[in-house]
Amino acid sequence: MSAEKTIEVLASKNRRALINLLFENKRLRFDSVILMLGFERDFSSKFRKRYLEPLTKVGFIRSENDYFVLTPLGFLAIDFFRDIDAIKLYGKLRYLLALETPKTTRQLMRFLGVSRRTCWSQLEKLRGMGLVQTVRIRYKLRDDTDLNLGELPGYLKKVIIMMGRKAVSPAEIALATGQRESSVYSRMSDLMRLGVVEYAGPEPPPKNIFHIYHKLTEKGSEVLQRIKSFENVLFCMLCITDYLSKNGRVDELEIWENCSKKIQNINSFETRRAINILRMADLIQGNKLEGYTLLQ
Q1: All residues at 6 or more sequence positions from 145 whose CB lies less than 8 Å from its CB, including other chains
Q2: Contact 279, 243 (CB under 8 A)
Q3: Of 59, 140, 146, 201, which residue is most buried, by most CB within 10 angstroms?
Q4: What is the pLDDT of residues 113-171, one digit of tens each?
């Protein structure tokens, strides 16, 4: 089960409500689920088909003596993505992964193989979610630039005169000079190559990027880290239960050492998270000092 598939499953208001309900109540009969979610009894068969069966099929829910309970995978999904709007995020994970390093629109389009219209549409939605920001680079004349413009073409002189000695963005130049912004980008590239202007913020520029680019916000980086960490924690949960079944009571350090041998790049925080999820799911018991055992 991947993070992307998990987001897809959770991208349903009623599936999400069902999982949250079982997370809070541990185990419920079907009639109680229907009643607590506010559905009429005549909707029961549709509810099973649309919401209960898909969650059971992917392994988030199981039936246990006429009760429905969350599986460890269900607890994992809630632990990772409970505070994320999966409906809005669905279909956009690859944009977050692509923007692990900042990219221009053109670079992002090429990386993902999408059209400019699709790219901008998805970026706009991600900006609205606070996960991505667009940075417009500002430029200034180099301190040693001679304002006696000499043989420079007129269209470049016009840009330099407007800039003066202050830091400006191509958008500001376009507004002041009446030129198209795309044309100003070309002018600025020419001036950069001539060594007349230099970068002036707002932050250290990524390599091989000019004018405008897209990057993850702090929130976007945190969501990306969850996505990348999801499968590590899932594999760690499987590793822990297998190890405890063969070795009885085991302390946390030994669990970490065993998991790190089998899972590349796993860290101690992910191991601790896997242990906590297994405890929530009532699969293991114990604590850091006394060690952990499987529950029978």
Answers
A1: 160, 196, 197
A2: no
A3: 140
A4: 999 999 999 999 999 999 999 888 888 888 776 666 667 787 787 887 788 778 888 88
